[in-house]
Amino acid sequence: MFLVCLIAGCSICWFNTVCFVLCIRSFSASNRPLALSLSISFNGLSAAFYTLFANALSPLSPSVYLLLNAMLPFAISILALPAILLCHTQESQHHSMPNHDRRVFLGLYILAFVTGTYLVVFGSFTATRSAAWVILTGAMVLLALPLIIPACSNCSYLDAHGPDPASPLNHDDPHKPLLISNNHQTESDAVMEITMEHQLQGSCGTLLHKGRLAVLGEEHSAKRLIGCVDFWLYYTAYFCGATVGLVYSNNLGQIAQSLHQQSQLTMLLAVYSSFSFFGRLLSALPDVLHRKVSLARTGWLAAALVPMPMAFFLMWKQQDGSTLIVGTALVGLSSGFIFAAAVSVTSELFGPKSVGVNHNILITNIPLGSFLYGQIAAMVYDANGQRMSVMDNRTGTIDTMIMCMGVRCYSTTFFVWGCITLLGLASSIVLFKRTKPAYATTASRSSCKHQVSS
Asked: How many CB atoms lie within 10 A of CB 445?
């Protein structure tokens, strides 16, 4: 069982990395965060879709989930491969149309919103097998609709002519390997950035303090990344933010049971899934509102962390059904935004070509945080619980387990998690303050380049 779980975990990590790298290399810098937000948002709906599939096939058999996990990803990958290859073969025949691309993404976001609402609403209902097939058919139709828009636009949302000279964050060939040796490239980029810094210092440049990121999109090797202060601030913000929300969702069943809210568990899971999904969609706000709201993406990241400590302190002070629902919604919204925005932040701060390696280094905090925060919850739960003997109806054996009921089971845990997320919020604010000049410098240089070209 351990070996199977290990292989599954490695495959998930590899699959996510390939998808992230494919999005980053296949879309222009202006559309890349939108594509990442969409793909990660649909990733958050997979649990609801699998539940619909399982209810239609065999609602009483848990093994059907294993069958779906084994077959669906492979089948979907085979179906998606021709579309990806078709788009790349037509790159030389089409021109990039930014305004048209924005309309395409707007249509995709509307469909994503409708699909998410459909899956969340109908996925939380208990239906007969025939009704489950009807709901599943509707979900499959909605999931297939986004394929029509790119097909009709003839893959025009791709950046057909390679790098965008107006953007420092764009790059090149989607057929390059995932791991790129960029030591020489980093050195040349550094020399070029120093030269540009001196050239633009008088008019558009900004002198930055030592240790801060000078520009966005500069490639960081793994060794350089680990020695970067901004990375560890970013790591702490993620470790003390989104990872806590993930652990909360994993313990939601036991939390509901201890607070005598077991009957609302399905609704709580639906609330977390829905708000996590919409939080992922909202991660596109920095790109949608960039002309109206001039805020660095790290600033949006800090703002997204604000609801997390609020939720935990709220549930610490008052533990009832309505408070649990509100807290779950806030945690889902905050963690969903961070999950979706993190890939774009990693790409902007530490280089798009190295994002496959750098982002995997970042998310090493997830297993570490899951173990640490899970242990905190388990210690508090066991300390306030009572030993009970339970008989297994299938085997007839009697097992001893610890069960805790009441507000004391998770009260201390909520307080500790709230303090931890406050640390994550503080770290994200410091990161925002340190990277704000880099975002301003990049915007200033882009403006200067447009003035020179005109």
From this structure: 21
Sign of the Cα pseudo-torsion (43, 47, 48, 51, in order):
positive
Instruction: Give per-residue pLDDT as tens, 49-71.
Output: 777 787 788 766 777 877 887 78
| pTM: predicted TM-score of the whole model, two decimal places | 0.77
Tokens in use for 344? 């774009």
Rounded to an integer, what distance in angstroms lies between the CA atom of residue 288 and that of residue 293? Answer: 9
Amino acid sitting at position 228: C
Numbered ranges of CATH 1.20.1250.20 in the chain: 215-454
Per-residue pLDDT tens over the stretch 245-297 = 999 998 988 898 888 887 777 778 878 888 888 888 888 888 777 777 778 88
CA distance 288 to 282: 10
- Give the CA dihedral 248, 254, 259, 263, nearest 10 degrees: 110
List the CATH code of the domain at 215-454. 1.20.1250.20
Cβ atoms of residues 275 and 326 within 8 Å: no
Q: Where are the alpha helices (DSSP H) in 318-397?
A: 321-350, 355-362, 365-384
**Dist. CA 244–CA 223, nearest whole Å:** 27
Instruction: Give the residue among 436, 438, 418, 416 at the shortest CA–CA distance from 428.
Output: 436
Residue 368 Cα distances to 17, 313, 346, angstroms: 19, 23, 19
User: Which pLDDT tens digit goes with each residue over 346-389?
Assistant: 888 888 888 878 888 888 999 899 999 999 999 988 888 787 76
Instruction: Give 397's DSSP letter.
Output: -
Vertex 79 angle, CA 78 and 84, to 5°: 90
Residue 329: pLDDT above 70?
yes
CA torsion through residues 157, 360, 41, 81, sign: positive
Tokens of 449: 């380049």
Q: Is 365 helix (H, G, I), strand (E, B) or coil?
A: helix
CB atoms within 10 A of CB 171: 24
Question: What's the mean pLDDT in 422-433?
Answer: 93
Question: How far apart (Å, rounded) are the C-alpha atoms in residues 327 and 309?
Answer: 10
